[in-house]
Write a structure and sequence with these properties.
- 8% of the residues are buried.
- The two termini are 24 Å apart.
- Helix 1 packs antiparallel against helix 3.
- 37% of the residues lie in helices and 31% in strands.
- A 4-stranded mixed β-sheet has the order 4-1-7-8, with no helix packed on it.
- The protein contains 4 helices and 8 strands.
């Protein structure tokens, strides 16, 4: 059987390394996008003075060509003044970069899921695995606060439930309370339930089950039911054969 603490440390180190690598990749993409933006051209300097018009020959009744040249110079200067303003460059399109970042985030989620599945397979092999689940029905006579679990007189977990978790259980949810390893043979499971019973009084009850672990995974269920005839909650442990 592998050393559980050593395996956990290795998987946590692998997860940290993966997160750091993705962070570096995203940072490099952002830096690359920033350096790839084209530089905007400098704004043209304002013209403080206009070029002196060419010396024109004074118009005279006998020289009509000089008058036509003088009339053509004015609209040319006006058109040059009106074309000074240039439109600003549009901001760079970063949609491609956003898609790459979203793709990297999805890859990280998939890798974390695969690491979690691999961790469970290594730490809790199927031939020694034992899992304990908890479910509730109705919940009129008992408000769950916590559950303490002992296997072979050794406490393996003490779980405190939040109001949101209790609400999910009352809606039909099932909580995997414990996952561990047991060798083949006979064992004893003891569960203690704490909470508020009828008339809002502190309520603590226990349930015991002796079972035999064979080759293969073992699944047990802690069930909390309301017994309507006695107006009391009922606690039982079910062995999923």
């Amino acid at each position: 059987m592998p050393n559980v603490s050593v395996c956990r440390l290795r998987f946590r180190a692998a997860g940290r390394w993966l997160t750091s690598a993705v962070t570096l990749v995203v940072a490099s993409l952002l830096c690359g996008a920033a350096t790839a933006q084209p530089a905007r051209p400098a704004a043209p300097a304002p013209q403080t003075s206009q070029a002196a018009p060419a010396a024109a020959t004074p118009a005279s009744p006998g020289n009509p060509a000089s008058a036509a040249q003088a009339g053509a110079a004015a609209p040319a200067g006006a058109s040059s003044e009106g074309g000074q303003g240039a439109p600003a460059d549009a901001p760079p399109d970063t949609r491609g970069l956003d898609q790459e970042v979203q793709g990297l985030k999805k890859d990280v989620v998939d890798l974390n899921r695969d690491l979690f599945v691999l961790e469970e397979e290594l730490l809790f092999p199927a031939n020694t695995q034992v899992a304990v689940f908890l479910s509730m029905d109705v919940g009129d006579f008992f408000a769950l606060d916590s559950v303490t679990l002992k296997i072979d007189q050794k406490e393996v977990i003490n779980y405190l439930y939040t109001p949101r978790e209790v609400e999910a259980l009352l809606k039909g949810g099932v909580h995997r309370l414990y996952l561990g390893n047991l060798k083949v043979g006979k064992h004893e499971l003891v569960a203690f339930f704490s909470g508020k019973g009828p008339n809002e009084r502190d309520y603590k009850r226990g349930a015991t089950l002796r079972f035999e672990k064979g080759i293969g995974a073992k699944y047990l269920e802690l069930k909390i039911n309301d017994r309507q005839r006695r107006l009391q909650p009922e606690f039982e442990i079910k062995d999923w054969e």
